[in-house]
Specification:
68% of the residues lie in helices and 7% in strands. By secondary structure, it is of the alpha/beta class.
Length: 426
C-alpha cells in the first residue's frame, strides 16, 4: 500500500507543480470572470455613444415619425442614442449615397438610411454602413423603420393605430421551476445554458484526463522508467497509481473552478448589475450543493472507467501516433454521450433517456444531465452507481491483464487476437 501511495504522490506532484497546470487552472477562472464582467464593462464604456444617421426619404412622409421613434431609444445615460438628420440637397440618390458614404468612411457618420418611394409596396429599404457586423444596430433600425411604416399604413387605412398596437401586443412568459421547496422563477435559456456548460465541462474533463493517463504511460514506457518502477511494484499498483494520481490532479483543478464559480454566482451578478442595470431582471438558476456532489461523483466514476481504458491503450503502443488507431475506443462513447445529451435534456424522462443514462459508457454525462433536470429518481441514480462500479471493476480486471503484458512489450503494435491472448493467459 505504501508503494501505491508513493506512485500516487509522484504522479500528483509531478503535474501540479508544472507551469501548464498552474496556467490552465488559473485561465479557467479568468475566462469565467471575463465572460461574466466584460460584457457589462463594454456596455458601460458605450453608454454615451451616439449613432449618427442620415435619412434619404424619397416618400416625403417617413422622416418625421422616424425621427420621433428613434428619439425614444435611449442610451445608458438617458440621452437619445440615435441622432437623425435628413438629406435635403438636390443631388440624385446615387450622388447622395456617394457623398454621404465618404463621410461614413471618414467617421463623421455611422450610417445612411435610404427609404425609397416603393417602400410601402415592396417592404424594402436600404441601410449603408461601414460596420455591417453590428447586428444590434441593424436590427434596431429594421424594427424601428418597420414600426413607422406599419403605423403609416394603419393611418392611411383609417384604423386606430394605438388600438391595433394594443391588440397586437406580444404576450411573454415567465418560467418557474418546480422543486421540493416550491416554484422558483428561472429563465429557461439560462437553465439550459447552465446544463450545457456543466455537461461540456464533464465531457472535456473525461477526454482530457483520460488522454493525460495514456500519454503518461507512453512516456514512461518509451523512457524505460517503467522497467525500473516495475522492479519494485506490481503492474496493477503502477496502473492504479497513475490513474489515481492524475485523477487527483483533475479533482484539484475542478475544486478550484467550483470555488471560483460559487464566488462569481454569489457576488458577480451584483457587480454586473452595478455597471449594467438593464440586466437587473436576470435570474440565475438556483444550484443545489448536491449538483456539485453529483458532478464530482460522476467525474470520478467516469474518469476511473475511461482512464483504465486509456492506460491499457498506452501500455500497448510505443507512441501517440500508434495510439490514434485505438483512441476511438475511448473517444467515441464520450462524443456520442455529449450528442445524446441534447435529446436527454429535451426529454429526460423518456425510456431512451433512462436506458442511455444507465449504460456505463454514457452514464457519467447523461445521468448527470438527468440529475440537473431533476428527472432521475434516487433508485435510478443508485442503479447507475452500482453499474458504474461493477463496470470499473470489470475494466480494471481486463485492462490490468492487458497492462501487465503490454507495458513491457516493445516493437510491433499488437492486433486484436494478440490482445485477447493477453487477457486470457496473463
Amino acid at each position: 500500500m505504501n508503494k501505491l501511495f508513493a506512485i500516487i504522490k509522484r504522479e500528483y506532484l509531478q503535474r501540479v507543480k508544472t507551469k501548464g497546470f498552474l496556467i490552465g487552472t488559473l485561465l479557467m477562472p479568468i475566462f469565467i470572470l471575463g465572460i461574466s464582467f466584460l460584457p457589462a464593462l463594454m456596455m458601460r464604456s458605450n453608454l454615451g455613444e451616439s449613432i449618427r444617421l442620415v435619412v434619404i426619404d424619397e416618400t416625403g412622409q417617413l422622416f418625421e415619425p422616424l425621427e420621433a421613434a428613434f428619439s425614444e431609444i435611449k442610451n445608458g445615460k438617458g440621452d437619445a442614442k440615435y441622432q437623425l438628420s435628413q438629406l435635403k440637397s438636390g443631388e440624385s440618390l446615387e450622388q447622395g449615397i456617394v457623398s454621404l458614404g465618404q463621410k461614413v468612411n471618414a467617421g463623421e457618420l455611422d450610417g445612411i438610411l435610404v427609404l425609397p418611394r416603393a417602400i410601402l409596396e415592396n417592404n424594402q429599404f436600404q441601410y449603408h454602413t461601414k460596420n455591417i457586423g453590428n447586428f444590434e444596430i441593424i436590427q434596431t433600425v429594421e424594427r424601428t423603420v418597420s414600426g413607422v411604416v406599419r403605423s403609416l399604413r394603419l393611418n392611411e387605412s383609417g384604423l386606430d393605430v394605438e388600438l391595433v398596437k394594443k391588440l397586437n401586443n406580444w404576450v411573454s412568459v415567465k418560467t418557474f421551476k418546480i422543486g421540493e421547496s416550491g416554484s422558483q422563477e428561472q429563465r429557461a435559456e439560462i437553465s439550459f445554458l447552465f446544463s450545457m456548460i456543466m455537461g461540456l465541462l464533464l465531457y472535456m474533463m473525461l477526454i482530457l484526463y483520460g488522454q493525460f493517463v495514456m500519454r503518461a504511460v507512453i512516456e514512461d514506457k518509451n523512457s524505460r522508467v517503467v522497467e525500473v518502477i516495475l522492479s519494485s511494484v506490481k503492474p496493477f499498483q503502477y496502473m492504479a497509481g497513475k490513474v489515481i494520481g492524475i485523477g487527483a490532479t483533475g479533482l484539484t483543478q475542478f475544486l478550484i473552478w467550483v470555488a471560483t464559480a460559487v464566488l462569481i454566482s454569489m457576488y458577480g451578478l451584483v457587480f454586473v448589475k452595478s455597471f449594467a442595470p438593464e440586466v437587473s431582471q436576470l435570474v440565475l438558476p438556483q444550484v443545489s450543493p448536491w449538483i456539485y456532489v453529483a458532478f464530482l461523483a460522476f467525474f470520478l466514476l467516469g474518469y476511473l472507467f475511461y482512464a483504465t481504458l486509456s492506460a491499457s491503450i498506452g501500455s500497448m503502443v510505443n507512441s501517440e501516433s500508434e495510439a490514434q488507431s485505438y483512441q476511438w475506443v475511448v473517444m467515441m462513447p464520450i462524443i456520442l454521450a455529449f450528442f445524446f445529451m441534447f435529446a436527454v435534456n429535451n426529454s429526460p424522462n423518456s425510456l431512451l433517456a433512462v436506458i442511455l443514462s444507465l449504460i456505463p459508457f454514457f452514464a457519467p454525462i447523461l445521468m448527470f444531465s438527468r440529475i440537473l433536470a431533476e428527472a432521475a429518481p434516487l433508485w435510478q441514480i443508485l442503479i447507475s452507481f452500482v453499474i458504474m462500479i461493477l463496470s470499473i471493476w470489470g475494466s480494471l480486471w481486463v485492462c490490468g491483464r492487458i497492462f501487465r503484458v503490454g507495458i513491457l512489450m516493445y516493437g510491433k503494435k499488437p492486433n486484436l487476437p494478440e490482445i485477447v491472448k493477453w487477457i486470457k493467459y496473463s
